[in-house]
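Lecture notes, part 5. Sequence design as translation. It can be helpful to think of inverse folding as translation between two languages: the language of shapes and the language of residues. The source text, in structure tokens, appears below.
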């Protein structure tokens, strides 16, 4: 089967970029031919170990195909980016024109049997409009629904094309309901299939405790991910023996704020920048607690990666998180309830002090558990992660591909 993958932003090691890389790897292992259309920075190159250069059509930003930086599906990306809500009419017309041209070229050159796009947003709508007769599946990563909220004028212009997508993959049950509410999609076209983790990179080893509790956060350095909240909370418990590892990146003022707050912790905070899967897995295997203080997520698969490495988890009680871990997780998972938020990913100012205290108390409890040599529940680790390997996730997606192709032949 020839599969054309389409994504509007750089396929990096975070979020939907991580998802599409693993999707291509699994698809190749299962004998499919893979092709790619992606929006990328001017100098970006994807490793040929993942996909051949002549199987790719890139839309290059930063002065190449388009003059401005890539508009991210999140307003803060791990690289220089634009914001959809700030693009003017001319920018959006050019954006759609260039992507339409590249998608047409790819469909003509590669003759795909199926399209697999990412995000229920502009590029997926263009793909549906350009190739209405090719079976098409779109994975919703959650951030696209946020764009419908932030840019309703764009959302209204593409909703009919999005409704004509053959199959939509939601990463959680809560997200499935949000898709129906946001674009009025036919519920029968939506299936919940989570993303997965790579067990070659994320696996357990025995953890040493030498008197310092190793904490790790991996993701964008941004306020919507709760990183400033985490750093301020740790300042309240600086007397405890911990070291925080920050893995990930960002750009602009958000990154600067996070690094300044990390500086207040001195040697107790270590900034690693962006890490490959292999290096992130190695960091997680020597860490005791993984922290995800995010105010908004689709399905945060980094939690499964951390759990597979034997990390205890401290995270906000978002719907996708509750789906991952359920309720019977003993001492391995601590979920922090959030108050009503001001926007989809921003708390009210009046709640910030309470949130800092709440997270600080939870972190203190988790650190003390490690100090007291409370053993991780490895039986729970195995049961929680066993269904989320990429091999199993892709098997479900591949069945959907086959069904769509059969239906197209009728």
């Amino acid at each position: 089967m020839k599969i054309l993958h389409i994504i509007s932003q750089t396929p990096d090691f975070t979020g939907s970029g991580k998802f599409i890389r693993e999707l291509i790897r699994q698809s190749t292992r299962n004998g499919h031919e893979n092709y790619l259309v992606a929006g990328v920075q001017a100098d970006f190159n994807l490793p040929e170990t993942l996909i051949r250069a002549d199987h790719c059509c890139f839309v290059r930003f930063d002065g190449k195909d388009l003059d401005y930086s890539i508009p991210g599906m999140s307003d803060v990306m791990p690289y220089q980016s634009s914001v959809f809500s700030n693009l003017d009419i001319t920018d959006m017309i050019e954006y759609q024109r260039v992507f339409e041209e590249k998608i047409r070229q790819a469909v003509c050159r590669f003759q795909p049997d199926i399209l697999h796009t990412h995000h229920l947003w502009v590029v997926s709508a263009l793909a549906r409009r350009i190739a209405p007769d090719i079976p098409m599946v779109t994975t919703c990563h959650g951030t696209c629904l946020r764009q419908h909220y932030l840019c309703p004028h764009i959302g209204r212009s593409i909703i009919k094309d999005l409704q004509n997508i053959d199959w939509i993959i939601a990463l959680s049950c809560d997200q499935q309901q949000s898709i129906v509410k946001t674009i009025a999609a036919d519920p029968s076209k939506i299936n919940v299939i989570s993303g997965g983790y790579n067990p070659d990179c994320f696996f357990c080893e025995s953890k040493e405790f030498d008197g310092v509790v190793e904490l790790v956060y991996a993701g964008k350095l941004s306020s919507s991910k709760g990183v400033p909240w985490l750093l301020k909370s740790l300042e309240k418990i600086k007397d405890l023996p911990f070291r925080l590892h920050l893995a990930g990146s960002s750009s602009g003022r958000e990154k600067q704020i996070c690094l300044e707050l990390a500086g207040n912790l001195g040697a107790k905070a270590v900034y690693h920048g962006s890490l490959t899967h292999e290096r992130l897995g190695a960091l997680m295997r020597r860490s005791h607690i993984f922290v995800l203080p995010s105010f908004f997520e689709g399905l945060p698969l980094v939690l499964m990666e951390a759990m597979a490495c034997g990390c205890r988890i401290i995270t906000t009680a978002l719907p996708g998180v509750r789906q991952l871990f359920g309720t019977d997780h003993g001492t391995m998972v601590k979920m922090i309830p959030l108050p009503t938020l001001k926007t989809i990913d921003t708390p009210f100012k009046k709640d910030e002090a309470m949130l800092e205290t709440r997270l600080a108390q939870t972190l203190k409890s988790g650190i003390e558990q490690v100090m007291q040599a409370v053993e991780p529940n490895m039986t729970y680790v195995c049961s929680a992660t066993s269904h989320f390997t990429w091999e199993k996730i892709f098997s479900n997606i591949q069945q959907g591909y086959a069904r769509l192709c059969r239906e197209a032949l009728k």
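The translated text above is only one of many valid answers, since several sequences can fold into similar shapes. The mean pLDDT is 92.
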